[in-house]
Write a structure and sequence with these properties.
With 378 residues, this protein is of the alpha/beta class. Helix content is 45%, strand content 16%. The protein folds into two domains: 13-175 and 358-371, Rossmann fold (3-Layer(aba) Sandwich); 191-356, Glycogen Phosphorylase B (Rossmann fold), CATH 3.40.50.2000. Helix 2 runs parallel beside helix 3, helix 3 packs parallel to helix 5 (134-144) and helix 7 packs parallel to helix 8 (233-246). The chain is globular and about 65 Å long.
Length: 378
């Protein structure tokens, strides 16, 4: 199905409903990457921004300021729909209950104007919403059923939505773009374990903290680096008190937020990357891909599509969520087996190049749009 504008000559026009950075988190970053990729493929792509959150602390939180912005963004979106004469609208859709409810009118706008649309899903949780109540089941039906297709980050997420979405579902993994990071730093006698995230409880910081004394009990020459902005000050206070109480201040370093070259240098100087998330909406964290690009073995949780990214026993380890014992066990193994660490890092880097580089992403987007007849066959 193509739109009423598809018969005209020239490149297809695509309107994206999403948010560009800031704040810097996965969905916003991938919105920017997707926009640029469409333009590189020769399409006329533009964005109708939904910048409800302006700071990372506002993400997934109801704020009075967001409510005030809603009407203005909705009016802008309707105007963009009218003047863009888009052949296709792509929605970066929320899976939070209030977020999805708020975005329903935006989706209906495309339906009223008979514009085909695609849902680009960057989190999990739609299946949970579908089974939550009759109200959300109907909202899911109204949003998903008329969609031309859905883009999801992995096969697990495809399985989640195919229960209620009978249409085409394309797996489109995230990617990391930008210049190549610096080379690996020289090997040190101290093994550096990096945790890098927008830090809150659901990203596994408590799991990591519980694992640290277990690691240091057998491997004292380990430095744990906690990097990223703290989204919950009470959790930050709890971590600081834990460090002081256990007497491990010399083994735990906090950097705060790191971006650009600082982030690349931090990854290059680290030996192991840990991401023990149990975030309910976790799908495919970009920071895991950044660690793989830097050639680090990754220890992560068996949630979302992360086990489709990190190959257990080959590019790192996949452990159950909220399991500090298993996390400590895997860290200790990589600390004590530097050759295994080196080999896993190399495999991790190669997997990034093959499946999660910007070149791989552009190729996959082109293949999908060809199948949907928005690009001519190559």
């Amino acid at each position: 199905m193509l739109s009423r504008h598809s018969a005209r000559s020239g490149p297809r026009r695509i309107l994206i409903y999403g948010q560009l950075p800031p704040p810097f988190h996965g969905t916003n970053i991938m919105t920017r990457v997707f926009l640029r990729t469409l333009q590189e493929l020769g399409l006329e792509a533009r964005i109708s921004s939904k910048q409800f959150s302006r700071r990372i602390e506002e993400v997934n939180r109801l704020k009075a300021a967001k409510v005030g912005r809603y009407i203005g963004f909705f009016r802008r979106f309707l105007r963009d729909l009218r003047i863009s004469q888009a052949d296709l609208v792509v929605y970066f859709l929320s899976s939070q209950p209030l977020g999805l409810l708020a975005e329903l009118p935006f989706v209906i706008g495309a339906r009223i104007l008979h514009m085909p649309y695609i849902l680009y899903l960057h989190t999990r949780g739609y299946g949970r919403l579908h089974s939550r109540s009759l109200l959300f089941r109907e909202i899911i039906r109204q949003v998903f059923r008329p969609a031309l297709a859905c883009f999801v980050l992995g096969d697990r997420l495809r399985q989640e939505i195919q229960v209620f979405f009978p249409g085409k579902i394309f797996v489109l993994p995230n990617c990391i773009d930008g210049p190549e990071p610096p080379g690996r730093a020289p090997v040190s006698s101290t093994t550096q374990v990096l945790f890098l995230s927008n830090i809150n409880e659901s990203k596994g910081i408590r799991t990591l903290m519980a694992a640290i004394p277990k690691v240091l009990g057998t491997s004292p020459d380990v430095l744990f680096v906690l990097a990223g902005p703290w989204q919950d000050r009470s959790v930050e206070k709890e971590v600081l008190e834990f460090v002081e109480r256990r007497g491990i201040r010399e083994s735990v370093q906090r950097t705060g937020p790191v971006y650009g070259k600082d982030k690349e240098n931090l990854l290059a100087s680290s030996d192991i990357f840990v991401f023990p998330s149990h975030y309910p909406l976790e799908a495919m964290s970009l920071v895991v891909l950044e660690a793989m690009r830097a050639g680090l073995p990754v220890i992560t949780s068996d949630i979302g599509s992360l086990p489709e990214v990190v190959v257990d026993g080959k590019t790192g380890f996949v452990i159950p969520p909220r399991d500090p014992e298993r996390l400590a066990e895997k860290i200790v193994r990589l600390v004590k087996e530097p050759e295994l660490r080196r080999r896993m890092g190399q495999e991790s880097r190669q997997r990034y190049l093959t499946d999660f580089s910007s070149a791989a992403y552009k190729k996959r987007v082109g293949e999908i749009l060809e199948e949907l007849h928005f690009l001519p066959p190559r």
